[in-house]
Amino acid sequence: MIIATKISEVRAQVAAWKKEGLTVGLVPTMGYLHEGHTSLVDRAGKDCDRVVASVFVNPTQFAPGEDLETYPRDFDHDCALLEAHGCHLVFHPEVEEMYSQDAATFVEILSEMPKQLCGKTRPTHFRGVCTVVSKLFNIVTPDKAFFGQKDAQQLAVIRRMAEDLSYPVEIVGCPIVREKDGLAKSSRNTYLSETERKAALVLSKAVFLGEELAGQGERDVKQILGAMRKLIEEEPLARIDYVSAVDGVTMMPVENMQGQILFAVAVYIGKTRLIDNFIWKG
Ligand code: PAF
Fold this sequence. Notes:
By secondary structure, this protein is an alpha/beta fold.
């Protein structure tokens, strides 16, 4: 596995692969990898001849006071996992390689989409995500890029951006990977104490409950959200950020069960903010 820290190295390697007629899949990550990430690498390996993963904790998607400095990092472990899952190149740039000191250009979606759900408490987050992902698309020029469905709003935002900016890349959404007890895998799970880890199960329990109700034929969005909310409120360590139902493509709130609906939750467990979701298709 090649470890590249410079944009020029990535460009040269990808150009060589493309000259051979090979397809390239990109898995963008912020490192501290777990099975959620490796499932994306596995899928990329199935779909593409060469797999590039980026490991970069992107400062522009963190607001002041968020966990940029404390975000968990373990690059050696990341490399071992990536290599074991058949990744061909890992791009691990310094911040200065990605953002020059006088960088002044951002990629921002100006519709309501990034202002919904997580955008309400993290108003600049998706601008940072779109900017770095668009830079990665320009650097790696992948045929396909792989993102987890756990970050459902991020996936929707990136699909919008890729279409609006005519990127010749297919965006592939991959299923949520869960711990045995249901908790969605997340690098931020490492912030949880033992007691908080148990409390965090309310997220997946709420998601499973909502899915079950919808599966049993409940067609009242408010009833489903109400039941999910009630379950979370019973956990003393949980503080709800949102329990929402939105259109699966536009991310705008919905009241009727029609089309593709994203039921999404964001909950603080102590100081740690976790997210989870399910998609209902009519
Ligand atoms: O999902 C993430 O880990 C990040 O938001 C991403 C897509 C790698 C951009 O920094």
